[in-house]
Amino acid sequence: VTLIHFSAQMQHKGVAIKWVTENELSIQEYVVEKSGDGMHFYSIQKANAKNRAANNYESQDKEPAAGNNYYRLKIVHHNGKIEYSEIEHVVGNNEPSNYSMMPNPIVNGVVNVQFINQMHGNYQLRLTNINGQLISMKSIYYKGENNLKLFNINSLADGIYYLEIINPENETNVLKVIK
Fold this sequence. Notes:
Elements: E1 2-11, E2 14-22, E3 27-35, E4 42-48, E5 54-61, E6 67-77, E7 82-84, E8 88-92, E9 98-101, E10 110-116, E11 121-129, E12 134-142, E13 147-152, E14 160-166, E15 172-178
């Protein structure tokens, strides 16, 4: 077996663990292992091998610890041989996910939003007026930036607007925008 890719990445609802293999012959299973110190690992999930030429696998740790989380892949062959992947390190954070807009009221007509502990992925953004009429809409790919300049509302009249943020899991959050 050739392990092409192994990764662990913090997302909105846990740690996404992904791996890609090629030339998968006589592999029995994959075991995702976890550790808090990078030395003492324990099994958290298993996946049966597909034994095909090219394979994609996904797993998720829905309960990462605050602080250090180490992950590795244990590759179990039918003949009992065991191999291990490189170790991936993820820092868990038990702070809630959120969005923050500062300053509000808006200064210089630019809507700046901070994504706090949000998953990477495609987001839909809708700016509406107080009556719910759509003023502007856009899609962004969020990849971990701290502060996003989302809309320039200089041309809009002073007043109250709403920014709807729809995350990759189709959950909607609404922020009040004051201009």
